[in-house]
């Protein structure tokens, strides 16, 4: 893993750094330009030095050949030995006299077919004869007397190896021997050293120039990007809501105009935020004041409505008697709505404090089930309860946690369509979780994404059997967040829905939110969820990541004394009618797929 990161680090550097990309571009362009320039300079220097040296060598060779021809023409040699000695002496003289021009030796060769005296190939150095190619030999042999031919060759160097050189050849007439070829070999070692020195100087100059260009581009790009980086940091501060640090405006160029425009934008956003905050505060005060003002007349109306409701049997007119019943129900609903609005107002204003005490969440859950016995009985839902053996104690605000559980259970009853509802509780070292899973109409992924929004209803045409303001889940999410916990939702069309409440077992100092290790003791997605529906649940206010642990051990709950009107806890293997609470014994699946129920739908 580390080697892979190290391999990709340069690529990430170039992707995230404009200075690096500009420097790399300068390196590539500068290297290509320098290479082309150096090539042109080297070729030009080499060509000019070679041409000048060639002209000088040809002029020197012409003088030596003419002088040699004149000397051989006046010789008095009469035998082949004398001719050979005269030619050898002349070759030595050419080599010595032309050494200042770079000559390293001379060679005479030919067949002499037109004469009666033949001489062998003569040279000042036997190695020089191998430098004469067949092509040059043919050209010189077939050329006219006095015309020069030349060819570039590699000649032995003074120290070791070979160096650049030139062979100049011409036909000469020998006494008694006829026409032969005379070749003078020149070395270009000194000129090659000059060219190499110039090349090295040019290369070093080009490399230095390239480094200067790279450094200049990097510094210039870094300097130009300073305002851009400042603008980027200011944009990050702007995204974080910090608008009190404007950009410094230097000069009157485009970058200064950018800083001025950004400062103007930040000021405009700040003014809009201030205006919206003022409107929000006014709205909160209005809702809070109106809610408080409505409580006094509502209390009077409620007392009158309850009095009329209690005496409804004495009313003879059936329409008035029906109106008394409706008035009693709607006043209760109005009071619930008013209570929710007051709670939302307090939450928005940040004036909420927790009244925490250490309680067993199993007792809170049992109390909620008992308080909502009427709704459970009327809905025909079977509540299947699975709780752990050990105490599920936690430091919580009992009123708020009971409200969360009540909202989740009533929401499940509302949408279960008389199918069973599974309530599972689990606990670990630092968290306790309660999952409420129904097997009703379910929710689409779009609905799951908005289920915690205020006043949101997935199906506005659906009739509410238990009333409600559309604020229950939103308030529940806020209550969970106040504890440092989370509230997650999962659902799938025709496969029901699942809500998971996870709370830390200990709050922070002074009733501040607590903490627990993710992901908690219980997963939000139930075990019987179809494979296609195992999508990531939505969490209010943020998503949960990590590996989900399995539920803790469960057992039969010990029965509490029940009076009239309380919910009986039925034994798991006993026949149970819908509308009761079933305690799941150890070893039984807490969320088995719902069987067909009389009056319900297959899950």
Automatic annotation (TrEMBL):
- Give the catalysed reaction(s), semicolon-separated: ATP + protein L-histidine = ADP + protein N-phospho-L-histidine
Q: Where is this region: Disordered?
A: 544-569
- One of the record's GO molecular function terms: phosphoprotein phosphatase activity
Q: What domain of life?
A: Bacteria
- Enzyme Commission code(s) on record: 2.7.13.3
The keyword Membrane belongs to this UniProt entry's keyword annotation: yes
The Histidine kinase domain extends over 289-507
**Species for this entry:** Actinomyces gaoshouyii
Keyword set, alphabetical order: ATP-binding, Cell membrane, Hydrolase, Kinase, Magnesium, Manganese, Membrane, Nucleotide-binding, Phosphoprotein, Protein phosphatase, Stress response, Transferase, Transmembrane, Transmembrane helix, Two-component regulatory system, Virulence
Could you list the residue ranges that cross the membrane? 21-41, 202-226
Query: What NCBIfam families does the record tag this protein with?
Result: MtrAB_MtrB
Tell me the protein's name.
Sensor histidine kinase MtrB
Q: Which residues form the HAMP domain?
A: 222-274
Q: What class of enzyme is it?
A: transferase
The cofactors named for this UniProt entry are: Mn(2+); Mg(2+)
Q: Where in the cell is it found?
A: Cell membrane
Please report a single Pfam family linked to this protein.
Answer: HAMP
Which CDD domains does the record associate with it?
HAMP (cd06225), HATPase (cd00075), HisKA (cd00082)
